[in-house]
């Protein structure tokens, strides 16, 4: 076996380890980063402008969908700027924050 082929096979063997080093980006995560991080923070704990700590929220998907769609208090409504499936994606992502 020549040196180039050996090097290629070695790098190929490392590929699964490199791929698993970065977690996949969830669809709702990108929406969250664009619209929610400012007040909730990347980890959901920021609490700026009275935003609730999403890691401690006891709201289920239904309650979160209502809040994202209609807003409440200082939280703006996103029902007109996000498609219903985008609302569901960001809600699903917010439920992963721990």
Textual characterization of the structure:
The protein has 98 residues and is mostly helical. The protein contains five helices and no strands. It has helices at 3-21, 27-35, 37-40, 61-70, 84-94. Helix 2 (27-35) crosses helix 5 and helix 4 (61-70) crosses helix 5 (84-94). The N and C termini lie far apart (49 Å). The model has no long low-confidence stretch (mean pLDDT 87).
Average pLDDT confidence is 87
Order of helices and strands: HHHHH
Termini Cα gap: 49 Å
Number-wise, the strands total 0
Can you count the helices? 5
- Major sheet summary line: none
Low-confidence regions = none
Structural class: mainly alpha
Question: What's the overall geometry?
Answer: elongated
**Quaternary class:** single chain
Rounded to an integer in angstroms, the radius of gyration calculated over CA atoms is 20 Å
Topology, element by element:
Blueprint: H1 3-21, H2 27-35, H3 37-40, H4 61-70, H5 84-94
Helix pairs in contact: 2-5, 4-5
Keywords:
98 residues; mainly alpha; 5 helices; 0% strand
State the gist of this model.
The chain is mostly helical. It has 5 helices and no strands. It is elongated.
